[in-house]
Each structure stands twice: as C-alpha cells, then as structure tokens.
Amino acid sequence: MQCLLIYDIPDDRTRQKIADACLDYGLQRVQYSAFVGNLSRSYQRELFIEVRHRLGKQPGNIQFFALDDASWRSRRVISQGETND
Predict the structure, then answer these.
(1) Cα gap 63→7, rounded to integer Å
(2) Alpha helix (H) residue ranges in the chain
(3) For residue range 15-36, what is the model confidence (pLDDT) as tens digits?
C-alpha cells in the first residue's frame, strides 16, 4: 500500500532523524518534508512507532497517510524544472 508521511518539525536534528527513518524504511523523498513509498501494514505500524520514538518530546507535527490504489492513482502531480527528488 502506498504511504505518504509528511512532517513539520522545527528542530534540525530531530527533523533529520525523522527523514533518516523514512529512508531506512525505503520511502522516497518527494518534497523536503514529505516521503512516499510502498509499505505493508506491519511496516506502516513499525515506521509510525519509530518516528514517534525519534520525535520524542520535541515539538512537531507528523502525519501518516495510507493510500489505497484508487486514491494513489487519482493523485495529480505537477513537476517542472529542477527538483530535488
């Protein structure tokens, strides 16, 4: 199942820890604070637990969306010029 994880974390070090967790689980960065990838339900749970742990008591907002195939196929993307994919 395709998953989207987005976050808004003010602390640079904590933000990097969350990004590293996303990369460790095979997600790809689609924007600076947004990652997407295909994860089983068990990996979705594991990743959510891991990012909660890495956030700790630091301020931040992390949102995780599991997208069914129809939702994923209906997404709309505009990408032009240089990007940091």
Answers:
(1) 6
(2) 12-24, 41-55, 69-73
(3) 999 999 999 999 999 999 999 9
**Across the chain, how many H-helices and E-strands are there?**
3, 4
Task: Please give the Cα distance from 10 to 61 (Å, whole number).
Answer: 9
Distance, CA of 18 to chain centre = 8
Instruction: Give bridge partners of residue 31 from the DSSP assignment.
Output: 34
pTM of this structure: 0.85
Backbone angles phi, psi at 64, to 5 degrees: -125, 125
Angle at CA of residue 33, ends 63 and 41, nearest 5°: 45
Q: Domains of the chain (ranges plus CATH)?
A: 2-62 (3.30.70.240)
Q: At what angle do helices 41-55 and 12-24 cross, to 10 degrees?
A: 160
